[in-house]
Amino acid sequence: MRQELLSLPKGLAEEVSKNLVMVARLIDEDPEQAYAYSRIALRLASRVAAVREAAGFAAYATQKYNEALAEFRAAKRMTGSVELWPVMADCERGLGRPERALAMAGEPEVQKLDKAGQVEMRLVAAGARRDQGQLEAAIVTLQSPELASHSIQPWTARLRYAYADALLAAGREDEAREWFGKTLEADKDGSTDASDRLAELDGVEFVDASVDLADDRVQDDVDVDEEEDDQDPAEVAAAERATDVAEYYDEDDDEYEPLEESEADFDATDEIVVVEDDEDDERDAGRDKA
């Protein structure tokens, strides 16, 4: 890809590269956003094969199969590579044309694929058989040296999973359980839900502890509300009153002590009454005599 981008002016190449990086970063977690970035790159450099390929995968991730197929075909014409053959066949499946996918599985291009590509083509062909309701044919399609091998390859987990799923769809539950178990052995990074499928077959039900905890908290809140509703309003008011009074204290004392309720009720707007001491009374009496 880098070599292809070198054919563009430097500024344009950098802009296209940034958009392609965003496509790769978002295609799994946010396919729609990845698709938007791919359209920008396509508008800037539609004659670059890597851009057409990225646009194809972004469209494929958003199930725009007709658009994806067109982009993959364009990339194939530009490069002459058959690498995209399996995903092109899967686009035909997505468009409701499994018979075309099966026809592609028999084309000479398949023989030019590497081992990973051939396994991918086998998975697509088996899926096309299932689309046509041919479950036993799908099972036979997946039976291969790659499936029987004890060697763990990048495609092993997906191949075993597809085989187990086909067996289960055909009602061969015991065999399906065995192959879901073998899938789990090969699926070190958890790319499939084989563990869940196996647990389901064994009748194991998983409980989400976080959901239960949230439910308990909600129930606690309900219990508190009900308890408060059952209390006498007068008692509640008295308790709140006592709490308010306890918050006042005498600042002249060494220790904080609640003031009397009458002091706590003092309001700055109340009338202030000045009480004069005895000396002031005697002084005023002397003035009256004079």
Written overview of the protein:
With 290 residues, this protein is mostly helical. The protein folds into 3 domains: 2-146 and 161-166, Tetratricopeptide repeat domain (Serine Threonine Protein Phosphatase 5, Tetratricopeptide repeat, Alpha Horseshoe), CATH 1.25.40; 147-160 and 167-205; 209-289, no CATH class. It has 17 helices and no strands. The chain has helices at residues 2-5, 10-26, 31-44, 49-61, 65-79, 85-94, 98-105, 115-131, 135-142, 145-148, 156-169, 173-186, 194-201, 209-230, 233-246, 261-264, 278-289. It is flat and about 80 Å long. The model is unreliable at 245-277 (pLDDT under 50).
Supply the key terms.
mainly alpha; about 290 residues; Serine Threonine Protein Phosphatase 5, Tetratricopeptide repeat; flat; 17 helices; 3 domains
Instruction: Report the top-level CATH class of the largest domain.
Output: Mainly Alpha
Give the SSE order as H and E letters: HHHHHHHHHHHHHHHHH
The average pLDDT is 82
> What is the helix content?
55-70%
Main beta-sheet strand count, sense and barrel state? none
What is the level-2 CATH architecture name of the largest domain? Alpha Horseshoe
Q: What name goes with the CATH superfamily of the largest domain?
A: Tetratricopeptide repeat domain
Assembly state: single chain
* SS summary, helix count: 17
Which outline best applies?
A: flat
Gyration radius, in Å: 39 Å
* Low-pLDDT segments: 245-277
Give the CATH topology of the largest domain: Serine Threonine Protein Phosphatase 5, Tetratricopeptide repeat
- Beta-strand segment tally: 0
